[in-house]
Design goal:
Number of helices: 32
Largest sheet: 5 strands, parallel
Structural class: mainly alpha
Number of domains: 4
Strand order of the largest sheet: 2-3-4-1-5
Distance between the termini: 23 Å
CATH superfamily of the largest domain: Tetratricopeptide repeat domain
CATH class of the largest domain: Mainly Alpha
Shape: globular
Radius of gyration: 29 Å
Length: 724
């Protein structure tokens, strides 16, 4: 995990030196500081600046959590888990995950942008985290304080005259304009805009078209028009509203319409989404690009680079203004439905493209689109009439929940979607429910919740048979077989997975799930001693994956092939296969596949003669298993390699030394553990010896599990479980 996820500054930070120093001093004294002030005054920018300056103080980093796009208070903890780049596959609540992760870390957490509508949930969660995590400091930025015990409130005033004029001139220069002329006019312009940075930036964006004097005259007209404002509004709230309203007044009818329609996006969006969602009466599709470009030029829309390519975003204050206009037009619900329809289509496209060379692109695009996907799911769940669509969307996103490390959030949406009553047992409503059920069962299995898994899969199978849905029945059977595999019931696993694969072939189903079924069957055969059969299955999977460009399932096939190579006395090939497996799973944030590969790499390493590094890798697997759930699924068969590695490394090193190296691994971050696994450290003299042969790491029956020992020689006095 990177120590910081702070965004890079896209333009020069102007002024605020005294405020930044004061904020840093407050963070010396208080563990909870909230920057408050009117919208657009620069709270978030100042908080980010202060946090960047303090990064060296926090050994475990600085993490940013943006909450403006959230509607559901139940997702606040999920958003913080995501901000901390945690992947948790267990049934633990996100609160428990946060408390455990932060308990012994020294970290600064930024909570910014629009938490006012989630204030109760935010305040309660942050209070709990601060009480349970003594090394945590929280810096928040919003329009009100959170009223958490021990909170220091820092009220950010607008810019002083000198800074305001510097900001106006600087942003004008970035737009290619020298803001010359009468200094008195510029000073008056800054004064009339109350030194609010957002208002100044909006004004600067107009300087390519209007002189400062023209701007001032238009602004004065706008002030007179809106001077009454809303009753009870603070003057500076009216000023910002006026500044944005004035910018709105200067827009063309097409620009105003697009501004209003863009307000339905809950996070970053791309051009294709805008063209679909926002085109229509008053704005033709072929005009969207040009009009969006005008809003971009006026600083009403910002462009940002993401892992999925360039995206656009509206500042929360600008977006809120547009939403008011959309409501005034009586078009909010229609636009929300168009937004939902686009993201349902987007998810459907992603599911199809997951089984293709674009798998990595799909993972990145889904990650960037997550706020909008959440908004679409929320709209679907607002009425029973749309519940079927919610089930379809939640089920379609299985690849993101399972393949990209979002089991906990997937469980949240799937549980909600399946729980909505009064569905119609006819296609496509029934089909959507069946898909949601088998995906829910799949997620619950990987979370270590067999009770929920069996309930969902049993219902799916029964209803599928009753309605003649062979596809859903095959998936339910497949996942019941997966549960049997993890429960060490190998004969039942082989029977169920084999039956599902036969059904897939009969109906012509071929995708990542089907190939994963072949890999799971290969695991069953490997555990039963049929290495030849396991290799044949995985070789076929590998070939199909190479043809289709599929990487996620390929990684699991590589794991089984590596196991076979190691058992057959070829640790060099096993390491090569596992290194690719680790790389792929880490890229997709799939901790299940990743930790399995690290466990087997530990055995490869001890076979190569480096018992110290093997102990490090075993220790490194422990915190990953805490995020995944039950270590090695509680399976004696999956535990075989770990038990054998622990025994051999312990015999080579002695108990105290083994535990010391084990403790070193346990303290590694996930990224450091991956780097260590891929470094290939081992005994150069021992690795690759022609005669080297590994003992069989897996057995047909349960492997012995060494008893848990406390580590000796660990600097922290903490240890792990010698066998998971």
């Amino acid at each position: 995990m990177r120590r910081s996820n702070l965004p890079a500054e896209l333009n020069r930070f102007v002024g605020r030196a005294a405020e930044q120093d004061q904020l840093v001093r407050l963070l010396d004294e208080f563990r909870m500081v909230t920057v408050v002030g009117v919208g657009g005054v620069g709270k978030t920018r100042l908080a980010l600046r202060a946090a960047a300056a303090l990064q060296k103080r926090y050994v475990d980093g600085v993490r940013l959590a943006e909450l403006a796009a959230l509607r559901d208070p139940g997702l606040v903890a999920h958003a913080l888990v995501e901000a901390l780049a945690l992947t948790d596959h267990t049934v633990r609540s996100p609160r428990e995950v946060l408390l455990e992760h932060l308990a012994e870390r020294r970290l600064l957490l930024l909570v910014v942008d629009g938490f006012e509508h989630l204030v109760e949930e935010c305040a309660g969660l942050l209070r709990e985290l601060l009480l349970g995590c003594p090394g945590l400091t929280v810096l928040a930025a919003g329009r009100r304080s959170l009223r958490v015990d021990g909170e220091a409130v820092f009220t950010l005033a607008p810019m002083d005259e000198a800074d305001a004029m510097e900001l106006l001139a600087g942003r004008a220069a970035e737009a290619g304009v020298v803001a010359g002329g009468d200094a008195g006019t510029l000073r008056e312009l800054c004064r009339r805009l109350d030194g609010i940075p957002l208002a100044l930036e909006l004004a600067a964006a107009r300087l390519p078209l209007l002189t400062p004097a023209q701007l001032l005259r238009r602004l004065e007209d706008r002030f007179r028009l809106l001077d009454g404002g809303r009753r009870g509004a603070l003057p500076r709230h009216r000023t910002l509203r006026t500044a944005i309203g004035w910018s709105h007044e200067l827009c063309t009818p097409e620009e105003r319409l697009l501004w209003a329609r863009l307000s339905v996006f809950a996070g970053p969006f791309d051009l294709e989404a805008v063209e679909y969602v926002c085109a229509g009466a008053g704005l033709s599709a072929d005009r969207v690009l040009d009009v969006l470009g005008e809003l971009l030029a006026q600083s009403l829309v910002a462009r940002e680079d993401t892992a999925a390519g360039p995206r656009f975003r509206m500042l929360d204050t600008v977006r809120a203004y547009g939403a008011e206009w959309l409501e005034a037009l009586g078009d909010t619900e229609r636009m929300r439905r168009r937004h939902r329809d686009w993201y349902v289509g987007f998810a459907t496209w992603c599911e199809l493209e997951w089984f293709s060379p674009r798998q990595g692109e799909v993972a990145a695009a889904t990650d960037v689109a997550l706020p909008n996907l959440r908004a679409a799911l929320e709209l679907c769940l607002e009425s029973a009439e749309d519940a079927s669509l919610a089930r379809h969307l939640a089920g379609t996103l299985w690849f993101s929940w399972v393949g990209c490390g979002r089991l906990s959030e997937g469980r949240h949406w799937l549980d909600r979607a399946v729980a909505v009553p009064a569905y119609e047992p006819v296609a496509p409503h029934e089909e959507a429910r069946l898909k949601a059920l088998w995906v829910l069962g799949y997620v619950a299995i990987l979370q270590g919740d067999p009770t929920a898994a069996v309930a969902a899969l049993h219902e799916c199978g029964e209803r599928a048979r009753a309605t003649g849905n062979a596809t859903a029945e095959a998936y339910a059977t497949h996942r019941m077989g997966c549960l049997a595999l993890l429960s060490d019931d190998l004969p039942r696993a082989e029977e169920l997975i084999g039956r599902a694969l036969d059904a897939y072939r009969e109906i012509g189903e071929l995708n990542s799930n089907v190939l994963m079924g072949q890999v799971e069957l290969a695991m069953v055969r490997a555990f039963q001693g049929d290495l030849e059969g396991a290799v044949a299955l995985c070789a076929e999977v590998r070939e199909v994956c190479e043809e289709r460009g599929e990487r996620w399932t390929r990684a699991y096939a590589l794991y089984v092939l590596a196991y076979a190579a190691l058992t057959d006395g070829d640790p060099v090939s096993a390491r090569e296969l596992l290194s690719e497996c680790v790389t792929i799973n880490h890229a997709f944030h799939d901790l299940v596949g990743l930790v399995l590969a690290i466990e087997l790499l530990a055995l490869v390493t001890v076979v190569e003669g480096d018992a110290e590094e093997a102990a490090v890798l075993q220790g490194a697997a422990v915190p990953v298993w805490r995020s995944v759930g039950l270590p090695l699924f509680g399976s004696a068969h999956f535990n075989g390699s770990r038990a054998l590695c622990a025994r051999q490394a312990g015999e080579a090193l002695g108990g105290a030394a083994y535990q010391a190296w084990y403790g070193e691994g346990e303290r590694l971050s996930l990224d450091a553990a991956v780097e260590r696994a891929l470094a290939g450290r081992g005994d150069p003299a021992g690795r690759g010896r022609a005669g080297a042969r590994a003992p069989r790491p897996f057995r047909a029956g349960p492997a012995p599990v060494p008893e848990t020992r406390k580590p000796a020689g660990s600097p922290t006095g903490k240890g792990g479980e010698a066998a998971g």
